[in-house]
Amino acid sequence: MNLKSLAIALGMSKTTVSRALNGYPEVNFRTRERVVAAAKAVGYEANPMARSLAVGRSNVVGIIYPLLPTDLGDAMFLGVVAGMSEALEAAKMNLIIAPVSPHNEQPSYEQMVRGKRVDGLVVGRTLVRDERIAYLSRAGFPFVAHGRTDSAAPYAWFDYDNEAGIRLGLEHLLGLGHQRIALVSAPLELNFACQRKASFVAAMTAAGLAIDPRHLIDNTLDRRTGYQAMQQLLACSPRPSAVIVDNHLSGVGAVRALLDAGIDIGREISVIVWGSVEDTLIGSNVTTIDQPRPRQAGAKMIEMLLALLGGTPPAQLQVLWQPVLLPGVTVGACQR
Length: 336
Description:
The protein is of the alpha/beta class. Helix content is 43%, strand content 15%. It has helices at residues 3-10, 14-21, 29-42, 48-55, 75-90, 105-114, 131-139, 162-175, 191-206, 223-234, 248-260, 294-309, and strands at residues 60-65, 94-99, 120-123, 143-146, 156-160, 181-184, 216-217, 242-245, 270-274, 288-290, 318-321, 324-326. The strands form two sheets. A six-stranded parallel sheet has the order 2-1-3-4-5-11, with helices on both faces. Strands 7-6-8-9-10-12 form a six-stranded mixed sheet, with helices on both faces. Helix 5 (75-90) links the parallel strand 1 and strand 2 (94-99). It starts with a helix and ends in a 10-residue tail after the last strand.
């Protein structure tokens, strides 16, 4: 049975039946129930292409991403993507990831929006001042930001509490007597890195502790730069007694540098890494500021995007999850 036959059998217009099957809010609940029950009874399934044309949607959600070489081996990134894919499959939709070079990222957003190739976008690695979010807001195009920015326009976002996570790590170290604490940061144009550094500085100041400028290193977002940052810290005199690395990609390199230098981690220098660290180069029992449930986080962002497509205002779709501190063997009491 096709849509036309189903509509005739129900005594309704094709438009009403189509909108009922696709969950449009203007169709009342009883009508929708009647249409859905009738469709199930006769085994009707919408033709995906015809459905897309009828509702003016592609049934595709996109991520435009300047992929780093480490991303495809990043369990956290893949977990979030898996959660998105599962949620979209349940909604009979698809996910596309469009890898782009960094200089072509903004034009790719504009091309995707103008061509109406996707119904909505997830914007990752948000910047403090993010032209992608500003453009999508001006265009009125549905999107969910994976992270926040300083945009004044209301927009939908999902994030972890960066300030609270850094406080958790610092309070743990301060409670163990550490005072010379270093921070290794991602590039500070990334909003999460900026927020985490600001929280670190504020918490150290509140504790009455001076920060050695040599103990603040940024622009690290992979193993190599994390390794180099830790080498810089080891060359300082005096060395920090503890280090927080604000991203797990750099964290692997930082811990590897300590192992290669013969440092007794947790005794000579303590280390906390933001994000789950499981790597054959360093093992897995690292003390972490963890972003729990990455698959559920991916699914949550899709839930929010579908709500946007259903008419929920962006300002009502702002979700902040709390990180947790997971103790490991890389943190111990300060020895000096």
